[in-house]
Amino acid sequence: MLKQALSLSASNGLIALVNLFRNILIARLISVEDFGIASTFAVTMSLIEMTSNFALDRMLVQTSDGGSNRFQSSVQMLQAARGAIGAAIMFLAAGPIAVLFGVPDVAWAYQLLALVPLLRGLAHFDMFRLQRKLEFRTIICVEMGAVFLATASAFPLSIWLQDYRAMLWVLLLQQSTYTILSHVLAKRRYRWSFDSIVAKRAFVFGWPLLLNGILMFTIFQGDRVLVGSMIGMKELGWFSAALTLAIAPTVVIGKTLDSFFLPQLSRVQSKPEEFGHLYLASTQAALFAGVLLTLLAVLLGEFLVHILYGAKYGPAVPLLVLLFIAQGLRIGKAGPAIAATAKADTKNPMIANACRFLALPVAWLALTQGGGIMTIIYVAIAGEALALVVSLLMLHKRQNLPLKPLSIPLAISALAYGVAASNSLIVTENSIEAWAAQAALTVVLIAALMWSMRDLRAWVQHMLSLHRSGGGKATNQTH
């Protein structure tokens, strides 16, 4: 299992790096304004993906009969229907979306993006079925193949088109390749069938996640919408550059945690003691990953912006660490969200994100009163922190999961985020000595956090012992 975890983490990391490289390449080859327009394509795709998502792939992993042919063919039909509906909505909304961003002449591009949900709806679900057995090779090959081919096309398309259209065609090529590879590498024949019982179960499982998707869109892309519609495309280009650097590792870590821990937690969902131990380990792992990522951003953020994007994106530097704090808290929230999903308590992430959603109208009001991009990020951090606390409290109340073992890790995490925030707000001397002091403080904070996470350390030791002994099922936790 350790080998599978490392393989999954490495592949997700490589995919994120390639995606990041692609976005940086396009950003450097086109103007800041055109990159701002290109970033709205991600906003639009998220609008359709998150607002029509019943999480059928996750249901197939979580439910006990998800591996059957009948269940798989049923959810594949539901997914195809969802994709067709999403495509229709995207096509009809293209005009208003273009007007919202102040680029009505780009409406045709948003209409063409309607092909993305349609193609994604036709993907084969066999790669998700195999995750039930902790077999990740197929989905790794599908995702890596799509990303690498799309990235390889980014340079010639950017040189040829020299504007936002390069990103449009790259995204279409990536989704087409993803769907084709999912069929080529599948072990089962692709089928559709309609089962009213499965459809009803999918609705019960998925409607909170559908509402959560709507909330996630407004949260995940709402800040970009506010910047693009109320401040300007050049500012959106800077903001998107910093946000891209923050989101890339966040997506990798969140996806890895979900793919790795959800099957294990689902297996022991009816065994309270084993579930509780694994819940604490997975939640502490999420908290640790979020803090580590943020502290690394303090050390390397300014260097990365200048090296990767160039001088024209210099205004993105002050935003970066604060955006990493918000994303670090989002990673921490993944721990309780995965545990709740394993218990089929899909209302937990929905309610938590509803709390995060409350930050958006506050940010909008601040902008109308003369606030800027930094104000939006401060409000986002507060919203993410509130959502994390609410999610943990709901799990404690609804699933009787312990909170006390998380109290010290949460306190040290809060201290680390406070240190990172103060570093971004206080202008410090750019010297080797100052950087070394920051690095030393980072080591101290990480060591203290790891010391406080008893359950995570026990789980890691258990994984290592299983690996040394040559295998075994690592669903149990030893203490």
From TrEMBL:
The chain crosses the membrane at residues 77-101, 107-128, 140-160, 166-186, 198-220, 236-257, 278-301, 307-329, 350-367, 373-395, 407-428, 434-453. It is found in: Cell membrane. The keyword Transmembrane helix applies. It is a multi-pass membrane protein. GO terms for cellular component: plasma membrane. Keywords: Cell membrane, Membrane, Transmembrane, Transmembrane helix. InterPro entries: Poly_Biosynth_Transport. It holds the Pfam family Polysacc_synt_3. Belongs to the polysaccharide synthase family. This is Teichuronic acid biosynthesis protein TuaB. The gene is tuaB.
